[in-house]
Specification:
Blueprint lengths: L2 H7 L12 H6 L2 H9 L9 H17 L1 H11 L16 H20 L3 H13 L8 H15 L1
């Protein structure tokens, strides 16, 4: 039994072998490369690349592992889960809310997409048409500084 069959037997997968591996689906790092290609001039936290990669990550995770997608997205934004979440990194409330919003929007993209290319194209349109949430760098920097003061 391979990993795809195991996840399907546990009811955690759609049963279709993904265009990317399950490890990549779970960590979402593959979306960074595509974000850099589509939004090369905006790599800051809270910007277009950030929003795009959350949309893509959650859309593909929802398509392949619908029972895990929301849980994985929420855990990733939790500061209380060691080695997975934001865990004291200084992520402020605005950034967390942005990420959670974009994760939910990404899961909705899964309903429309029939391929990874669809996911990429729909996500890009949502970012360019300002349907994805973004947060200005000033707000992120201010909240990060405030959170770091609390940890000192």
């Amino acid at each position: 039994m391979n990993i795809y069959q195991l996840l399907q037997s546990l009811g955690l997968s759609s049963g279709q072998q993904s265009e990317i591996g399950y490890r990549d689906l779970l960590d979402g790092d593959y979306a960074i490369k595509e974000a850099k290609l589509r939004f090369p001039d905006d790599g800051k936290v809270g910007g277009n690349q950030d929003a795009f990669r959350h949309l893509v990550w959650q859309a593909n995770l929802q398509r392949e592992m619908p029972l895990l997608a929301e849980f994985a997205g929420d855990v990733h934004e939790s500061e209380y889960v060691p080695f997975i979440g934001a865990m004291g990194t200084g992520q402020g409330d605005s950034e967390k809310q942005m990420d959670l919003y974009n994760n939910a929007l990404g899961r909705k993209i899964a309903d429309q997409a029939t391929s990874m290319d669809d996911v990429y194209n729909i996500a890009e349109k949502m970012v360019r048409k300002n349907r994805a949430m973004k947060v200005s760098q000033d707000i992120i920097d201010e909240e990060h500084a405030e959170k770091m003061r609390k940890y000192k």
